[in-house]
Amino acid sequence: MDTFILNDETKYNSYGFRILNAGLNLERFKANPVMLNQHWNFNDDVIGKWNNVRVEGNMLKADPEFDIEDENAKWIKSKVDRGYIRGVSLGIIFDREKMQVGADGKLFLAEAEVMEASIVAVPSNSGALKLYAPGTHELMTEEQVKLSLSAFSHNTTNKKI
Question: Which residues, at least 6 apart from 95, have a Cβ–Cβ distance to it below 8 Å?
Fold first, then answer.
């Protein structure tokens, strides 16, 4: 089975920030390395698990193990194997205080907790990176993410790290 890149810390996502691998808390994820279908947090949407979770250079990588006794997982695995689906997206929890502005003026997330990694049709677009709200651990909507980042940007426009 091919290895997936779960995060490339050199790439900015569609929300305008990148995530540093060194700041990722993988403890919960490694204890329950769930692979979801499109970030749907329901038992029916668990399509496998991730093995050999590791950081190599700028990349967080893992090897997928699909639940081939589940018909939906078997179907998605078939699409992955044939190259029709290639995307993965992390489901993370983070506090806005962990968002920082680099010397280049661009945002990066210094710390986050990984909850899950999902097989997605289009990675790192507005529908692919799902962020869990702190405290509730519920998925944030795209609008909530944009509002949160917008509020952060307004509060740190003059702060450079």
Answer: 111, 134
Residue 13, sorted as left (phi over 0), alpha (psi -120 to 50) or beta, turns out to be: beta
Q: Report if pTM > 0.90.
A: no
Taken as a whole, the chain contains a residue count of 161
C-alpha 63/C-alpha 43 separation (Å) is 21
The string of DSSP codes covering 114-141 is: EEEEEEESSTTSTTT-EEEPTTT-PBPP
Per the model's pLDDT, the better-predicted residue between 15 and 18 turns out to be 18
Each residue of 89-121: pLDDT tens digit? 999 888 888 889 988 888 888 999 999 999 998
